[in-house]
Write a structure and sequence with these properties.
Layout: E1 11-15, H1 22-30, E2 35-39, H2 43-46, H3 53-58, E3 62-65, E4 73-74, E5 85-89, E6 92-93, E7 98-99, H4 104-107, E8 113-116, H5 119-132, E9 138-142, H6 152-155, H7 157-166, E10 171-177, H8 183-187, E11 194-199, H9 203-209, E12 210-211, H10 216-229, E13 233-240, H11 246-260, E14 266-273, E15 275-277, H12 278-287, E16 298-301, E17 304-307, H13 309-324, E18 332-335
Parallel strand pairs: 1-2, 1-3, 3-8, 5-9, 9-10, 10-11, 11-13, 13-14, 14-18
Antiparallel strand pairs: 4-5, 6-8, 7-12, 15-17, 16-17
The structure holds iron/sulfur cluster.
């Protein structure tokens, strides 16, 4: 499977109410030769019955929509890198990559991209939350239901959100990515309260499970370029996969990574074992019935499919020790329930 990120969009669905937003106009202009179809609500297209996620993934359409309801939500308790107030938000649903373990396949019946064009509403929520938590910084994790940077040439997310966060000294934002898409970050001023967090799995998992995701070596180079310019960078080893030789793969990944990344200037490392809510897991497993990942030592526990305690302790404990050879322990976080 190709590892090139494609921004080829043949069809764009536009909510009537989204049309007049500047971002919607920019995107429609960029893809002026695509078919433009108006709809009254994105759910008509995105939640339609009888869709085939796998077929759509080969050629997703783009939906421009106006997000309603809650824009920024409290993050799960284990989801933090040292901050007290933690939130997440998603300016997009879905992403151009095709990871076998991606929970979005279990959550959504559609692989189309949804881009919410009312960025100002997200920003207002972020500003209000930082005012409420005025004594401590508030953390905003982006890219929860997407990848923060992979679609940036279209979403222009970096140019819209990074300068905004830069002006709010009480806000911290994590851009989480598996991409090499750092063009916009390279052109703007470095911001100490925006952390560029790159997710990695060992070589075998990257090659066999992370379809279309750029190779680890290319992402390490992108991360090194950002660090060289002074951007705070972080590493996310999440999800960690358990397979024979995972330890050797992981050790090699750390060697390759810390040859190029200076651990002294690394913001943080987080480590989490694979886990997925039961309903999503069943759906994803039915998409790939022969995928060995979905049988290896996973159990139903606390509403999730996750590794048994022995495997989880082995993965997290040993990974923490390996990372600890390079990075001080107080910057390593393990994601445990
Ligand atoms: S990069 Fe993240 S959001 Fe995209 S397919 Fe992989 S796991 Fe899912």
């Amino acid at each position: 499977m190709s590892r090139n990120t494609s921004y080829m969009i043949d069809t764009i669905f536009i909510e009537k109410s989204a049309r007049n937003f500047p971002l919607a106009k920019e995107v429609l202009k960029r893809f002026s030769s695509a078919q433009h179809i108006e709809c009254s609500h994105y759910g008509e297209v995105f939640n339609r019955h009888g869709q085939n996620f796998r077929v759509q993934k080969n050629h997703p359409s783009l939906i421009l929509a106006v997000k309603e309801g809650e824009f920024v939500l409290p993050a799960p308790v284990e989801y933090h890198v040292g901050g007290r107030h933690n939130y997440y938000f998603s300016h997009m649903l879905n992403c151009p990559y095709d990871c076998r373990y991606c929970f979005l396949q279990g959550m959504y019946s559609s692989a189309h991209y949804v881009l919410f064009v009312n960025y100002e509403d997200f920003k207002n929520d972020i500003a209000n939350i930082t005012k409420i938590n005025s004594k401590d910084p508030s953390w905003f994790f982006s890219g929860y239901d997407c990848d923060s940077l992979a679609f940036d040439p279209v979403s222009n997310f970096v140019n819209h959100f990074v300068p905004f966060i830069a002006e709010n000294s009480n806000a911290r934002m994590e851009l989480r990515t598996k991409s090499t898409q750092i063009r916009a970050l390279n052109k703007i001023d470095v911001t100490s309260n925006v952390i560029c967090a790159f997710s990695f799995t060992g070589e075998l998992a990257n090659r066999s499970l992370e379809h279309r995701v750029p190779e680890n070596s290319k992402r390490i180079s992108a991360m090194a370029k950002l660090q060289y310019r002074g951007w705070p960078v972080a590493v996310r080893f999440d999800p960690m996969m358990y397979y024979q030789n995972w330890r050797q793969d992981f050790s090699q990944l750390c060697l390759n990574l810390f040859k190029k990344i200076n651990p002294a200037y690394l913001h943080s490392v987080s480590i989490g074992a694979f886990r997925m809510p039961v309903n999503y897991f069943r759906k994803v497993r039915s998409l790939y019935p022969t995928e060995s990942l979905f049988v290896a030592g996973l159990h139903q526990k606390n509403g999730n499919y996750e590794y048994g305690l022995n495997i989880e302790n082995e993965l997290l404990g040993e990974a923490q020790a390996i990372v600890g050879q390079f990075v001080e322990q107080d910057r390593i976080y393990t994601m445990r329930d």
